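chain below, 273 aa
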Amino acid sequence: MPGAADSQRAGGDRVVDVAVMDGIAVVTLDDPGHRNSLSAAMTTALVDAFDDLDEEPGVRAAVVTATPPVFCAGGHLPDLVAAERRPLLETYAGFMRIAESRLPTVAAVNGPAVGAGINVALACDVVLVSPSARFDCRWLDVGIHPGGGFCWRLERAVGFRRAVALTLLGESLSAREAVDAGLAWRCVSDLELPAEARAVAAKLASRPPELLRRTRDTLRASVFFTDEDDAIERERAQQDWSMEQPEFKATVASIMDRIAGKNQNRSGKGAEA
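prediction:
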């Protein structure tokens, strides 16, 4: 696919690797020498990778992971303190592009995610972790205000009180604590994590793409509703749409056929008795 191995830093070395198999893209942050930090090269590479993937009709889901030992160390410090500092929105562009992708995304966090590195995981739809993962909210420890939607996404994931404590105290969560807090969905062994991430991505990819996209959009929009009637109306409109789709009608017909077949088998056995 175009762009699969084209994500480069200035020296010509790849900082993001993209591999596609059976409709699943695995996007790997691949700059372990810089702890997979969000350098200009990394950010550009992530944007380019997801631009390419979104144009590939055969790609149905994506896994975002990293070359160990660190998942993502957050902002690239030399960039943050440079005299000609990059605009912050440029620093955020990589994980924002993940969040904006048409593809359902699975984060496979296989090492520490620090500061803005947590944003990379939070940008994905489903977060899986291995015991090597750690979520380290050390923004204030280095004298910087959280950014890139960190506070908003973290609060949605773990609730207000946890988000306040984690952010203001600069606390960290182990992999299992992240699952308990709601920041991650499941913890599996380091050895099992790649296969588990692919399996979850494959399940997402098996859904009708437009139905999945609309459902994801409704879930994201639900946080803004303060009135139950508005939330119900949003869901009703999308549910009406889904019930007119051929996939729904075919699935219901198949279920009804199976039920009828089971009932017929039971009746036949009763008659033989």
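The chain has two domains: 16-205, 209-272. The CA atoms of residues 63 and 106 lie 5 Å apart.
thats it, cya
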